[in-house]
Design goal:
Blueprint lengths: L8 H8 L6 E6 L2 E12 H12 L4 E4 L4 E7 L8 H6 L4 E4 L6 H8 L2 E4 L2 H4 L2 H14 L13
Parallel strand pairs: 4-5, 5-6
Antiparallel strand pairs: 1-2, 2-4, 3-6
């Protein structure tokens, strides 16, 4: 569900942030899984907005500019896309989690890294798909939220 342009986690997270999934970003196993988008706000305002949407603590590694303009979103464990983000001219990468060296990578590459939680970033697609099934078939749904804290 990461890759789908309508029901995927990345596209839905971008939309939930009030932005438009404008172009594909990040390829895994031959499949484009993320989206790039644009905004114009301070890094701190963006962090606060992501935190408010996801309802949890969001960690930002401030390797990039203080003004966020071009964002890549790859949900889950997408910090490995920092290099691709830098190559594409993105100043910020939103993902769920990353290994320890993600800090150094973000600082070296000049990209802000927003770590919003693996679980928290990967609930959007399944909810979008459930809404679509309900609309089409009239099947009610309920999402059982069981956050892991990661």
């Amino acid at each position: 569900s990461d890759a789908h342009p309508k029901y995927g986690n990345a596209a839905e997270l971008v939309r939930a942030l009030g932005l438009s999934p404008e172009e594909r970003f990040g390829t895994y196993a031959g499949v484009e899984i993320g989206f790039a988008t644009e905004t114009d706000e301070s890094r701190e305002a963006f962090r606060t907005r992501v935190e408010g949407l996801l309802g949890g603590n969001v960690r930002v590694i401030d390797g990039g500019p203080a003004q966020v303009r071009r964002i890549g979103v790859v949900t889950g464990a997408g910090s490995s896309f920092l290099g691709v983000a830098a190559e594409k001219g993105l100043d910020t990468l939103v993902t769920g989690e990353g290994p320890h060296h993600s800090y150094l990578d973000a600082m070296e590459l000049g990209v802000n890294l927003v770590l919003a939680g693996h679980y928290a970033t990967e609930t959007f697609g399944v909810k979008a798909l459930a809404r679509a099934v309900e609309e089409r078939f009239g099947t009610p749904w309920h999402f059982i939220d069981a956050p892991t804290g990661f």
